[in-house]
Amino acid sequence: MDKNVCAYYRTSSAVNIGSDKDSRKRQHHSVFSYTQSKGLNVVQEFYDRGVSGTLDVLNRPSFMEMLNYCEDNSIDTIVFESADRLSRDLIIMETGFQYLSNLGYKLISVSSPDSFIEDTPTSTMIRQVLGVISQFEKSNLVLKLKGARDRKSKLNKSKGIIDRNGNGKCAGKKRLSEKHPELAKIVVSYRKMIDRKTHQPLSFRTISRRLEDEHNLVVSHNTVQRILDDIVLMKKEERNRKRRKI
Length: 246
Hints:
This protein has two domains: 3-137, Resolvase, N-terminal catalytic domain (Rossmann fold); 174-245. It is 55% helix and 11% strand. The chain has helices at 23-37, 61-72, 83-86, 90-102, 121-159, 176-179, 181-191, 204-215, 221-245; strands at residues 3-11, 40-49, 77-80, 106-109. Strands 2-1-3-4 form a four-stranded parallel β-sheet, with helices on both faces. Strand 1 (3-11), helix 1 and strand 2 form a beta-alpha-beta unit. The N and C termini lie far apart (76 Å). The mean pLDDT is 79.
C-alpha cells in the first residue's frame, strides 16, 4: 500500500514565478519522479511563492498550511527537491530539521534522500555540508548580481539613463509612466491646464481629484508627482541619447 506524503516547493525570486517559468515544474518533476519510484503517494502539494530561503520555516505561509494539513490527515512525511528548498541558511535549516523531527516528521530531500532521515554523524555531516554549499551559492550569486548591477548603473549613467536620485538606472522595475502610459498622458494634459484662481498649472492634488471625478481613477497626489517626475527624467534621458549620437 502506498504511503501518503506531502510535497513542498519554494521559489524565492518573483521573476521565476509563473506558468511559463521552470522553478515549480522542475521541483514537481523531481519530487514525483522520486515518490513514484519509491511507492510513495503525494496527496497534496504546497508552494511558497516569493519566499526567501533564509526565512524560518515557521514564518512561511504555505509551509505552515502544510503542517496543519499533515496534522489533520495523519501524514508524517514531507518530500522536497533539495536541501536549499528547505533553507539556504545552515542554522535555519538545521534548527528547522530538529524542530520538525521532534514533532515526528520525516523529511526527504530528493537530491540526497538519506540526509534528513538517518540520525547518524555521517548523515548530519552530509546535511550540514549541503547547507553550507547552498549558503555559499546564495552569497556568491548575490555578489555577482551586485557586481552586474553596479556595472550596468555606471554604463547607464554615462548614457544619461538615470533614476530619481541621479544614479544610473539598472533595476528592471518600470517607471509608473511606462507601466501606465494612458494614465501618464491624462496626467500630463491636466498639468498643462492653468488654474483660474492661482493662474498656475493645476496642482498635484487638483489633478488627483479630477482623475477620480472625471475618470473614476483613484490616484494619490504623490503618485501624480511621481508620474510627472518620471516623464521629466525620461525626456532628459532621450535628450542625452540624442546628443551622444550627434
